[in-house]
Write a structure and sequence with these properties.
Blueprint lengths: L3 H10 L4 H9 L8 H4 L4 E17 L2 E15 L2 E8 L8 H9 L12 H11 L4 H19 L3 H4 L11 E4 L4 H10 L5 E5 L5 H9 L6 E4 L7 H12 L3 E5 L7 H10 L4 E3 L9 H4 L5 E4 L1 H4 L2 H13 L3 E5 L5 H8 L7 E3 L11 E2 L2 E3 L2 E3 L9 E2 L1
Parallel strand pairs: 4-5, 5-6, 6-7, 7-8, 8-9, 9-10, 10-11
Antiparallel strand pairs: 1-2, 2-3, 12-15, 13-14
Helix pairs in contact: 5-6, 8-9, 10-11
The protein binds magnesium ion (MG).
């Protein structure tokens, strides 16, 4: 609860900003001033970057050592909101497509960053798809508005930061020796994530189990093609302290997934099978839950809608991320108190982060006590 004195102090610091006028008006203290008269135009800039992985990252679709990202900044009244687009190859976006999209964005036509619906509609109208590019604008807008309000987004959404889940930590597919080494390095984590979907699946699990009994969640990345085989694997995993199975079968195999989920002793989670809020209906009944990622759905606003929709359908919720900097991971973490599981380790897998943000303490997602998405540039 903000005291009236602090409130006015903040208001004084932010004098003239849109936010203060609307916030104070909402509190009934003074009359409302039109934001258009009080605020200046929004400024927008962006730059490409490449995050480098500590270890070669291998999953069913291939291996890689870097991921292209683009950082965005939206400015208003002396405040800067930060955003990020991350482009894993399987979503089809790249430096080229994101820079091309962002070059078409003209935010100078807007003066009130709180009109996120209006700004997002404009961004959507530029071109279909381009979800990572759109997310980079949406995240920066959320960061900016949170800063103008002086509050972190988890608080504006009504979540208790003490309710954040443990995050899983990914152990990539590798030789048994390297897998054992990576597993030992991950001893602080309470859930490990293992990428399956190759013919080494049982060997991977057995190797990790030779080092630790820590619960494991598995991500098959569509790697199992036959439903009987998938069910057999899930029963085998269920005897080895596995928590859930993510995207076990190909996206198109929706009937097979419904068959599998009905029989599976472990929850099944859709990842590649859905992108944004309107896709939940496609996976409802075929999976037990969904993996929400800002780069798939287009940002924090869509992600929050997905949490609400999934919950109203009785589905499980997981918040995930891509290989990306602490900027986008911390933005996603703002939603994590609402999730059953978090897979927010993307920033931990890189060695050239440029933001300070969420921390993982004793394996638990720990949100920074900072306004907006809670990051500061390093
Ligand atoms: Mg996945």
């Amino acid at each position: 609860m903000v005291s009236r004195r602090n409130f006015l102090k903040k208001a004084g610091l932010l004098a003239g900003s849109t936010l203060v006028t609307s916030r104070v008006a909402g509190a009934g203290l003074i009359g409302y001033r039109s934001p258009a008269k009080a605020a200046k135009k929004l400024t927008f800039s962006f730059r490409p970057y490449e995050v480098r992985l500590k270890h070669v990252f291998t999953l069913a679709a291939g291996s890689r050592t870097t991921t292209p990202v683009v950082f965005t900044e939206i400015g208003c009244d002396g405040h800067t909101g930060y955003g990020e687009a991350s482009m894993p190859p399987y979503l089809g976006e790249s430096h080229e497509t994101v820079l091309n999209f962002l070059n078409k964005v003209d935010l100078s036509q807007f003066s009130d960053p709180f009109r996120i619906e209006e700004i997002n509609s404009y961004i959507d109208s530029i071109a279909p798809g381009n979800f990572a590019a759109k997310a980079s604008v949406d995240i920066a807008l959320h960061d900016l508005t949170g800063k103008l309000l002086g509050e972190p987004w988890h608080r504006l959404w009504g979540y208790n930061p003490a309710n954040t889940p443990f995050t899983s930590y990914t152990i990539g597919i590798d030789t048994p020796e390297v897998v054992r080494e990576k597993t030992r390095e991950a001893s602080e984590f309470r859930i490990l994530k293992v990428k399956l979907g190759l013919d080494t699946d049982k060997e991977m699990i057995t190797t990790i189990r030779s080092v630790t009994d820590t619960p494991i969640c598995v991500d098959v990345n569509q790697g199992w093609k036959d439903r009987e085989f998938a069910l057999e694997m899930i029963h085998w995993l269920n005897e080895r302290n596995v928590v859930f199975v993510e995207q076990p079968m190909p996206v198109e195999a929706i009937d097979d997934m419904a068959w599998l989920t009905e029989r599976s002793p472990l929850p099944t989670i859709a990842d590649e099978a859905l992108q944004g809020p309107s896709d939940i209906v496609k996976v409802y009944g075929a999976y037990d839950g969904i993996n929400i990622k800002l780069m798939k759905c287009g940002g924090m606003r869509a992600a929050r809608q997905m949490v609400s929709t999934a919950r109203s359908l009785g589905m499980k919720v997981m918040i995930g991320c891509m290989i990306e900097s602490s900027c986008a991971v911390t933005a996603a973490a703002q939603l994590s108190p609402a999730a059953d599981w978090a897979d927010l380790d993307g920033n931990l897998l890189i060695n050239n982060d440029v933001f300070d943000g969420l921390k993982i303490i004793d394996g638990k997602v720990t949100l920074p006590d900072r306004p907006g998405i809670g990051v500061v540039p390093l």
